[in-house]
Amino acid sequence: ALTGQPLALPNIATWWCGQAQERDYVKANAERMTIGNAFATRLLFDLDDVSAVGGNFNRDVRETVENWIDHGGGQLVGQEAIMLSTTPAFDGAQLVPRPMSLRVFLARTPSGWEVMPGGFARIGRSSDSAALAMQSGGSAADVWVIGREPVSSESMLSNAGAGGAVRQQPGVLPSRAADNLYWMGRYVERAENAIRILRSYHSRLADMSSTDAALLEMTAGLLKGLDADPDERFPLGLQAMLKSASTSAGHVRDRFSVDGWHALYDLDKTVTSMSETVRPGDDMVRAMTVLLRKISGFSGLIHDNMYRFMGWRFLSIGKAVERAYLLCTLLAELADPGAPDGSLDLAVEAADSVMSHRRRYAVSTSRETVIDLLALDPLNPRSIICQLNEIASHIEYLPNTEFHRQLSPLQRQMLQTKAALAVHTPDTLGTEILTDIRGQVGALSDFLSSAYLR
């Protein structure tokens, strides 16, 4: 009657349990009925909450069907159990008939209701219709209606026509997308840092002498701070970082490089595979080297292939914030005057700056050379100041940061953080100052989130 047409199929016989006579009938015939929520908007056997089919509950319930009906009263309805139609299904050897239910969709249009072609089918795993109703396994399939003639291709994209293509404004970005891209950058950078330190840790573990024990203990503490416990066979925290990066990327696939997505997915899959086979020592060193190549390839794809729209800036800010924060942590621990022997070499190695140090300084590592290279050298992409410069350059392009305006809280924090570092020399940049700068980098993230990511 909704469409003004007579029903092509009879309605299912239904008894509302809010009336005594109907309730008693449902109780007496529960084995031949489907019973569920009277106010559901879906079929009773599609419900996620408690229902009963053929006198059996769809989940563990500590009462009988009869008591449930008595207690539920007007909240329940009983419908006659129907014989479902069947469809051919392949069971691995041959085509067999299996019960199926078909869900179709109607769309309301200015001219009335229209039934959309096709639908959604649920197919039972066995010939028992009740098993399908109880959601005991099975499969789902899209239902297509094959046209008699070729269908013309339609697109919701506008046709440029004679006016030529119109370049879209690249600056518009939803805050949720910006948030996902920002955190994807942070998770990837955090994972890369953990991989580098894990490789250094296991390299020394494989060739450990008594003098390395204190250094290994300190490195283990650094890794635990990153939630990458080296005592685990394969750190669960590292897997979680890459899983979080993949999740963030999955939310913005339409704004993300296809090759970049595949590279990140391959990295996640490789980690899952390694977690079951890798062993401590040399085996872990080789595994981390493989992961490092893959994650570096991903970073290269971002740098070379990603369109320089606003989302790329948030992703790049995320990577730079995380790298600056982690470098502060690394130097505060490993460049501290009380750090164990070998700490400075480990810091340079973990920051991938061994060759840069050899070219810049004709001496072995010292606290001054390491601080100069990893904190104050603007030409070293693995230095704190270089990352702060990177963040500042991207902030200039964010909304509401025009030069003629007053400085935003984010811009003021950016200037304060850079100044707090730039006024120092390698001799004056001590552990406490590095720890303070790390806190200011964290504040940068808070200001950015408050202004753009909420």
Mean pLDDT reading: 86
Question: Approximately what portion of the residues adopt beta-strand conformation?
Answer: 5-15%
Biggest sheet overview = 5 strands, antiparallel
Structural class: alpha+beta
User: What value does the Rg take, in angstroms?
Assistant: 32 Å
What distance separates the N and C termini?
47 Å
Identify low-pLDDT runs: none
Number of strands: 11
Helix percentage = 40-55%
| Strand order across the largest sheet | 1-5-2-3-4
Number of domains: 3
Overall 3D form: elongated
In DSSP terms (H or I, runs of 4 or more residues), the helix count works out at: 15
Order of helices and strands: EHEEEHEEEEEEHEHHHHHHHHHHHH
In short:
The protein has 454 residues and is of the alpha+beta class.
Structural descriptors:
alpha+beta, elongated, 454 residues, 4-stranded antiparallel beta sheet, 11 strands
Walk me through this protein's architecture.
Strand 8 and strand 9 (112-115) form a beta hairpin. 49% of the residues lie in helices and 11% in strands. It has 15 helices and eleven strands. It is of the alpha+beta class and 454 residues long. It has three domains: 14-80; 86-141, no CATH class; 175-452. The mean pLDDT is 86. The chain has a five-stranded antiparallel beta sheet, covered by helices on one side. Strands 6-7-10-11 form a four-stranded antiparallel beta sheet, with no helix packed on it. The chain has a two-stranded antiparallel sheet with strand order 8-9.
SSE topology sketch:
Layout (H helix, E strand, L loop, with lengths): L13 E3 L3 H9 L4 E5 L14 E2 L2 E2 L7 H8 L3 E5 L5 E5 L4 E9 L2 E4 L2 E4 L3 E5 L5 H5 L5 E5 L31 H32 L6 H13 L10 H16 L6 H17 L7 H24 L4 H25 L8 H8 L3 H7 L6 H10 L7 H12 L13 H14 L8 H22 L2
Antiparallel strand pairs: 1-5, 2-3, 2-5, 3-4, 6-7, 7-10, 8-9, 10-11
